[in-house]
Write a structure and sequence with these properties.
Order of helices and strands: EEEHHEHEHEEEHHHHHEHEHH
Helix content: 40-55%
Radius of gyration: 20 Å
Distance between the termini: 37 Å
Largest sheet: 5 strands, mixed
Structural class: alpha/beta
Bound molecules: 5'-O-[(R)-(carboxyoxy)(hydroxy)phosphoryl]adenosine
CATH architecture of the largest domain: 2-Layer Sandwich
Number of strands: 10
């Protein structure tokens, strides 16, 4: 390891994955360790925040040690420490943050605070460099945002959901029909065996690029109740297929006009719902005749990981975006405020 090498240690603990990565010179991912808690939370049908925090505490040092061993480096070698500061579960975020702060303090390294959704967007750089203007379709369990990027580290929300996130709607629909957590994964799997026989309406939202997904969830609940009251069977696979296609079509119908309006060169997907098979194929199909690059994150990048945090960490480090040791977590941090982190 030469002295000139840039070595970023990144830590992510915003939800139910404890993750640590080491990125060398913004190119070589030397380690990408993820300890997932999904099996534990599945028993409860969703993430239990207190259990998530406790498991992060138990796992964080083990995951850090494993990443350092995989990368074959020591903490002394680091250029800086990047860490997810928000958004996410407050208790969960704090675990990663305290670990990062302790390393930064003990080894006298810069501390780089990273916005979780910037991470999901930058995950696409493991496939293709970001090109601007870029439209990022951010679809996760907690957020649905259309983000315009005119250059690196420049985020403008042009549209967002007015209520539930799209992932939340997938999760709630899955729960209504008795499918396991994470609901989006179950719906996607079931949809493959179903037909699009139901129509799931969405409410009209005035603003051009804004959404409402809670209305679609309610429409599904009403449909299931009505069918059950009439002693008719709701075929889960058909409902899954219908909801998945109606929700994704709604997402794309509203998002894609932005490609022309903002002269977009590249469209990227970001967040957990970007794993959805229909979304992945449909966005490529709809944009194939346009002069725009469509980047689909690799599946490992659609779930939480620290490799994506390291990517953003690289660009922030280059711009000298450092925090001091008083840095706190922010569960509702807005992407446009990613440079504001000192209270
Ligand atoms: O980004 P993420 O891991 O969590 C947040 O930071 O919010 O996204 C999790 C969300 C969950 O709502 C999950 O059901 C959804 O992503 N999801 C999917 C698929 N895989 C995960 N939704 C639709 N189709 C999928 N294949």
């Amino acid at each position: 390891m030469s002295m000139k090498d840039e070595l970023i240690l990144a830590i992510e603990s915003s939800c139910d994955e404890t993750a640590v990565a080491v990125l060398k010179n913004n190119q070589e991912l030397l380690a990408n360790v993820i300890s997932t808690q999904i099996a534990v939370h599945q028993k409860y049908g969703g993430v239990m925040p207190e259990i998530a925090s406790r498991l992060h505490v138990e796992n964080i040092s083990i995951v850090i040690k494993e990443a350092l061993e995989k990368a074959n480096i020591s903490l002394d070698d680091l250029t800086c420490v990047a860490v997810t500061r928000g958004p996410g579960l407050i208790g969960a975020l704090h675990v990663g943050l305290q670990a990062a702060k302790t390393i930064a303090l003990t080894y006298n390294k810069p501390l780089v605070p990273v916005h979780h959704l910037c991470g999901h967007i930058y995950a696409n750089e493991y496939v293709s460099e970001l090109k601007f203007p870029c439209l990022a379709i951010v679809v996760s369990g907690g957020n649905t945002e259309l983000v315009l990027m005119k250059k690196h580290l420049d985020f403008q929300i042009i549209g967002e959901t007015e209520d539930d996130a799209i992932g939340e709607a997938f999760d709630k629909v899955a729960r209504v029909v008795g499918l396991p957590y994470p609901g989006g994964v179950s719906i996607d799997r079931e949809a493959k065996n179903g037909e699009h026989i139901y129509h799931i309406p969405h409410p009209h939202v005035e603003k051009k690029y804004d959404y409402s997904f809670s209305g679609m969830k309610t429409a599904v609940i009403n449909l299931v109740t009505k069918e059950r009251n009439n002693h008719r069977e709701v075929k889960v696979a058909d409902l899954a297929r219908s909801f998945q296609e109606d929700a994704v079509n709604y997402l794309l119908d509203k998002a894609l006009p932005a490609v022309d309006e903002f002269n977009i060169k590249q469209v990227v997907l970001a967040g957990g719902v970007s794993a959805n098979s229909y979304l992945r194929s449909e966005i490529v199909r709809r944009l194939k005749d346009k002069d725009v690059e469509v980047v689909i994150p690799p599946l490992w990048c659609t779930t939480d990981n620290a490799a994506m945090i390291a990517k953003v960490g690289h660009y922030l480090y280059k711009q000298g975006v450092f925090a001091d040791i008083s840095l706190g977590a922010d569960p509702t941090w807005q992407i446009e405020d990613f440079r504001n982190f000192q209270e």
